[in-house]
Every structure is written in structure tokens, then in C-alpha cells.
């Protein structure tokens, strides 16, 4: 049983009108348990749309999404996944701890259990002493760590991330990537990660799914095979560069004729 | 990259010397302004009923402090009553309009129409409706002005949530009721206090101006108008000072209220 199974999914926006957009066409994707899969592609290739379809935030025009053999809709109702976005989306009237507790409140956990869990999560993202801080008192990177702690609070088997480090500076970003790998090691969570940075996708993933726009479709899947114990040194590894080249060429192949808009070559 | 500036641990800067450094420029500007005014009137020999000297205004204020104070209390009370009633009315109707769509669609054009009518006309009508010996017409006028501001703000707070926050709530499979309780209402509370802060100085201005259109003779607006017309300009200015103090109190009070009631909006004050 796979963690996520996307079968023959298409998504059309504004169906039947003059601004009809074929956001995604005939997508098949299977993500195994414990796997880290990145979706990469230029702006408008439908990678965020695909993530939202998996999360059941929007519905496919055709096809089906299964999560642990459960329809995506049911999986959402059961809170079978956690989600983090480019914007941290912290609730500014709640302190850090209360933000992490929100999904637990909605699941009906009692107060003591919520408290224990939120503090545990804060330790996981190394923000133990910031429990009572308000979101505006934290830096962007810290806010994003709180958002990740929140997405993992209910201990979901699956984490969906939509360019979570896109708004961070390069140094913070690399640091957060290493942190994410550590958290993944500790929790064993399956992760689907949307990005438009090639090195980020290669550094984090077991597989990189390359997408192209108009209409949005999967054009290549690159196996990264860098092993599971990746460190900052991995970034200087020759194999790391090989994979980056492979993904870049896959993106170029997908983009024949139209320049690879929006791809960060860093 | 909007919120990446590191704020943790930087809250200890504003010590006592910081307060002095911050207060000094406005004090200097104020001293130059009033000193210049005084000197200008002396130099040009401006007649007192045209432009009195600050020292003369001060003397009038000092000699007639009781009169200025009681007029300030009258106008200030009108503004406060209107501010409170308008806030309650605005918040309640915005919540109702949000809950019952049809009601909201009825109410929206009406509030815009009310806001578009010049205050002057309404005060005259209200003065005819209520006895000219009461403050009711003026208070209703302030209520209407405050209502509009608060209504718009609270309606916006209930409706305009951060898209990411709403997507998150959807991913938690939260019910509309839970979204209302945990996202829309707290968000609207922040907007409510912004509305009060915006409305407070306006309440004072409306209370003062609405006295120009008849009614009892005991408020600041009436005193300013009648003393100007009697060419007792310095005395009129003393009442203007009273009006400024009432306005400042409302400004400071509403800012303090916001600071205490919605601490998550303190970012504005943090530098």
C-alpha cells in the first residue's frame, strides 16, 4: 500500500469558458511510505495544483487520489497529512505554542496532551525557549520552523510542503533543509515537497519529479540515490552535481522551445 | 521576504535615554513654533482679534479654566457616548451582515449612503427631531460617523483572512463554525480595535462641529463659534486648546486600548 497514489488525474480551471486552463493533464504518481519526493518545474507547471489535489484542498476534474488506499477527501477529514506553505500562515493572535496546538484542538485532544505534544514539537524544531513568543517576534526562518512543527504536531504519516523555504534567504534556507532531513530521519514521515530550486530538490529528495507547463504534466522522474545520511558535505559531492545536471537537463528537455522560466539555478 | 528581520532579543534598546532622545525633537519643534508665532505677532503688530499671541491664549485659558473644562467635558462626553454606541452598533451589524447574507446586501448600500450624506444636513434634521435642549442629536451624529468606520473594519476583518490560514483550516477539516471561532472572529477583533482607533479622533471632530448647527450653548464648538463672532479671539483659542486636549486624550486612549486589547498588533510599536 502506497502512501500516495495519484491515478489519471487531470485538472481544468474555468472549464468551458474562454479562459479555460489545462492545469494538469493525466498525472500518474505513486509515492511510497517514508519516501521524500520533490515536484519541480517552472511557474505554471501545476506543481502546487498537484499538491493541493493530493491534499484535497481542490478537487480533480477527472482521476483519483488515494492516500493509504483511502480517498483523498476522507484522508483530509481524518487529518492524515500535515501541510506547510511558503507563507508560514501562523495565527498572529496565538503564541507559538498555541499555534502548534491548533490542529490538536481541532482533533479534540485534551489540554494536557496538547501541551506536552506542542512542547515536544518545539524541541524537535529547536525552538524550546520560544513557546510563549508571539509570531511577530520571530524571524522568518523561525516562523517557518514553527509552521513545520505545527504540521507535524498531530503526527501525520504524510507531510505536504509547498515551497516552504521559498521566502527565506539562502543561508537560512540551506540550514532549514538540513533540519528538515533530520526531522524526517527522526519521525519517518513521508514528504512531498514542491520547489523551483534544483539543488534544493536534489539535496532533499529520493526522487525528483520534473514537470512542464501548458498543459501541466510529468516529463521525467530522476532517482537521486545519494543515500540517507546527507550532510552539508553532500552539497560538495560529485554525485550531487551529477544529479543536479540530470534534473537540469530533464527540465530543459521538458522546456524545448520555451525557456525554463522561473527555475532557480542555484 | 516580508518578515525576516530578527526581532528576538532586540527589545531592550528603549531605555530612559531613548525616551529623552525621542521626546526632544517634537519639544524643539513645538518651542520654535510657538516662539515664532509670538515673535511674528509682536513684530507685525497683528491686532489681537485677528491673531492673538500664544501667551495671551495661555492667559485666557488660565483665567477661564473652569469654563473651558466644563465645555470640554460636554463635548468630550458627546464624543465618548457616540464612540461607544457607534462601536457597538457597527460591530453587531457587521457580525449580523456576515452571518445573514441577504441582510448584509441590504445594509451595505445603506451604510454607504449614510456615509455620503454631509454631516451638516443630518445634524440639522436630528436637531429638529430631538429637542434642541438635549445633546441627543449630536450624539446620534457621532454614533453614525463611528458606526460607519467600525462597520467597514469589522466586516473586513470577518471576511479578509490570510489565504494560507484558510487553506490550513481546510486541511484540518475544520467546520465553518470552527473557522469562524478560531480564525474569523480573532481576526475581526484586531480590525475592530483599528476601527476604534481610527474613529476616536473623528468622534471628537464630529461632536465639535455638530455644535455649529444649533442646540444648547454649553459645548466647545458653540463657545468657539460665539467667541470668534464677538471678536474675543484669544478666548475662542482657549476653547480650541480645550478641543485639542480632548482630541489628544481620545487619540491616546484608543491607541492604549488597542495596545492592551490586541497585543498581537503591537508590531507597529516595536520600533
What can you see in these coordinates?
- The complex is a heterodimer of chains A (266) and B (271).
- Chain A folds into two domains: 4-80 and 157-254, Rossmann fold (3-Layer(aba) Sandwich); 89-155, no CATH class.
- Chain A contains eight helices and ten strands.
- Chain A has helices at 47-54, 72-77, 96-107, 111-124, 140-153, 170-187, 198-204, 238-254; strands at 4-13, 21-31, 36-40, 62-67, 70-71, 81-84, 158-162, 190-195, 207-212, 217-223.
- In chain A, helix 3 runs parallel beside helix 5 (140-153) and helix 7 crosses helix 8.
- The longest helix of chain A is centred in the C-terminal third of the chain and has 18 residues, at 170-187.
- The radius of gyration of chain A is 18 Å and the shape is globular.
- Chain B has a single domain (63-269), classed as MetI-like (MetI-like fold, Orthogonal Bundle).
- Chain B has helices spanning 16-44, 54-63, 65-99, 101-116, 119-129, 136-159, 163-171, 176-209, 220-229, 233-261.
- In chain B, helix 3 crosses helix 10 (233-261).
- Chain B is flat and about 75 Å long.
- The two termini of chain B are 19 Å apart.
- Chain A binds chain B through residues 52, 55, 57, 76-79, 81-83, 85-89, 91-93, 102-103, 105-106, 130, 133-143, 167-169, 172, and chain B through 1-8, 162, 164-165, 167-168, 170-174, 178, 182-183, 186-187, 189-190, 262-267, 270.
Amino acid at each position: 500500500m502506497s502512501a500516495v497514489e495519484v491515478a489519471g488525474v487531470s485538472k481544468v480551471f474555468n472549464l468551458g469558458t474562454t479562459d479555460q486552463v489545462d492545469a494538469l493533464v493525466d498525472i500518474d504518481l505513486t509515492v511510497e511510505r517514508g519516501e521524500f519526493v520533490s515536484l519541480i518545474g517552472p511557474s505554471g507547471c501545476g506543481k502546487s495544483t498537484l499538491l493541493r489535489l493530493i491534499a484535497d484542498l481542490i478537487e480533480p476534474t477527472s482521476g483519483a487520489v488515494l492516500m493509504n488506499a483511502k480517498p483523498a477527501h476522507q484522508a483530509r477529514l481524518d487529518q492524515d497529512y500535515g501541510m506547510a506553505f511558503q507563507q508560514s500562515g501562523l495565527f498572529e493572535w496565538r503564541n507559538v505554542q498555541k499555534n502548534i496546538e491548533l490542529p490538536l484542538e481541532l482533533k479534540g485532544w485534551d489540554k494536557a496532551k496538547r501541551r506536552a505534544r506542542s512542547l515536544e514539537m518545539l524541541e524537535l524544531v529547536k525552538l524550546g525557549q520560544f513557546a510563549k513568543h508571539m509570531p511577530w517576534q520571530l524571524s522568518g526562518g523561525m516562523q517557518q520552523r514553527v509552521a513545520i512543527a505545527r504540521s507535524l504536531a498531530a503526527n501525520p504519516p504524510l507531510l505536504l510542503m509547498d515551497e516552504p523555504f521559498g521566502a527565506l534567504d539562502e543561508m537560512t534556507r540551506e540550514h532549514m533543509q538540513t533540519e528538515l532531513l533530520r526531522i524526517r530521519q527522526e519521525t519517518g514521515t513521508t514528504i512531498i515537497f514542491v520547489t523551483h530550486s534544483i539543488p534544493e530538490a536534489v539535496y532533499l529528495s529520493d526522487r525528483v519529479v520534473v514537470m512542464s507547463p501548458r498543459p501541466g504534466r510529468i516529463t521525467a522522474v530522476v532517482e537521486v540515490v545519494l543515500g540517507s545520511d546527507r550532510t552539508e558535505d553532500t552539497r560538495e559531492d560529485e554525485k550531487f552535481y551529477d544529479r543536479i545536471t540530470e534534473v537540469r537537463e530533464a527540465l530543459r528537455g521538458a522546456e524545448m522551445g520555451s525557456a525554463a522560466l522561473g527555475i532557480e539555478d542555484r | 521576504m516580508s518578515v525576516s528581520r530578527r526581532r528576538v532579543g532586540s527589545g531592550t534598546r528603549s531605555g530612559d535615554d531613548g525616551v529623552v532622545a525621542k521626546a526632544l525633537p517634537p519639544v524643539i519643534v513645538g518651542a520654535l513654533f510657538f516662539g515664532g508665532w509670538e515673535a511674528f505677532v509682536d513684530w507685525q503688530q497683528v491686532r489681537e482679534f485677528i491673531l492673538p499671541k500664544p501667551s495671551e491664549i495661555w492667559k485666557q485659558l488660565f483665567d477661564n479654566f473652569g469654563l473651558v473644562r466644563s465645555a470640554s467635558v460636554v463635548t468630550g462626553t458627546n464624543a465618548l457616548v457616540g464612540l461607544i454606541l457607534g462601536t457597538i452598533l457597527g460591530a453587531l451589524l457587521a457580525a449580523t451582515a456576515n452571518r445573514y447574507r441577504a441582510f448584509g446586501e441590504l445594509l451595505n448600500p445603506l451604510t454607504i449612503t449614510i456615509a455620503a450624506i454631509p454631516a451638516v444636513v443630518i445634524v440639522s434634521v436630528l436637531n429638529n427631531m430631538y429637542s434642541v435642549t438635549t445633546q441627543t442629536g449630536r450624539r446620534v451624529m457621532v454614533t453614525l460617523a463611528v458606526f460607519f468606520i467600525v462597520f467597514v473594519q469589522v466586516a473586513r476583518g470577518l471576511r479578509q483572512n490570510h489565504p494560507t490560514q484558510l487553506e490550513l483550516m481546510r486541511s484540518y477539516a475544520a467546520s465553518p463554525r470552527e473557522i469562524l471561532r478560531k480564525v474569523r472572529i480573532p481576526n475581526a477583533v484586531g480590525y475592530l480595535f483599528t476601527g476604534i482607533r481610527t474613529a476616536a479622533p473623528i468622534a471628537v471632530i464630529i461632536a465639535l462641529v455638530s455644535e455649529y448647527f444649533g442646540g444648547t450653548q454649553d459645548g466647545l464648538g458653540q463657545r468657539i463659534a460665539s467667541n470668534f463672532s464677538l471678536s474675543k479671539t484669544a478666548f475662542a483659542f482657549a476653547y480650541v486648546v480645550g478641543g485639542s486636549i480632548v482630541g489628544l486624550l481620545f487619540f491616546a486612549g484608543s491607541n492604549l486600548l488597542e495596545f492592551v486589547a490586541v497585543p498581537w498588533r503591537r508590531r507597529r510599536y516595536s520600533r
